[in-house]
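To: structure subgroup
Subject: Chain for Friday's discussion

All,

I'm putting the inputs and outputs inline so they're searchable in the archive.
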Amino acid sequence: MSEGELRIDHLHKVFGDHVVLDDIGLVVKPGEVVVIIGPSGCGKSTLLRCINALETIQGGQITLDGAVIDGSSKDIAKLRAKLGMVFQSYELFPHKTVLENVTLAPTVVLGRDKAEVEAEALELLDRVGLKDRAADYPRQLSGGQKQRVAIARALAMKPEIMLLDEITAALDPEMVHEVLDVILDLAREGKTMIIVTHEMGFARAVADRVVFIDAGGIVEEGAPAQFFDHPQTERAAKFLRTFEYETVREQ
């Protein structure tokens, strides 16, 4: 096993009597960008939450660097620090400035020097084009700006893997590209990422591998060109035709 490898074996997740994820198996290598797509309600976001131990699983195992990710483990905080989660709804602290939002976890959770963390945070904010907004509060930002702050906040923990859950779903169309550009830059730099998205053009551009989930299981996976141009299953082909139809209607 290589350092930074995430492994999911026979993952089983249920909510009451409803099976959400059934026998999921997936390996994500360091530097790989895996994009997870599928219809609403198929279990995509739940999978990310299981990886970060925000949901309890009922079967199987998830490991990072060989260590089991388990929400009840005494080492879960240390493991979570290796997983940078960015949510659809930003989850910024409204009473803290942009800079304070980015520096809070490294100083409190990791106990790092405040001045050093602030210097790094300003570099990250510059990277996402928001250094000049460091003293502002979330209420003063647009949706796209809030999401870029959330990305900078996750990066401030220097995670091994970024988990991105529908990060453009709550944005106006004109704000989507400013967020996707940041993610594309991270991909070019070799950042390991697992991305849940409905943006098919973005998925094709950023992914090393596309994983298509439906009804709680992995139906198909492959390189972007193969998946989008030559899907191997009728279910994947039908899913992709839906997006083609929507594109025609929008023209």
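Points worth raising on Friday:
The first helix runs from residue 44 to 51.
The mean pLDDT is 92.

D.
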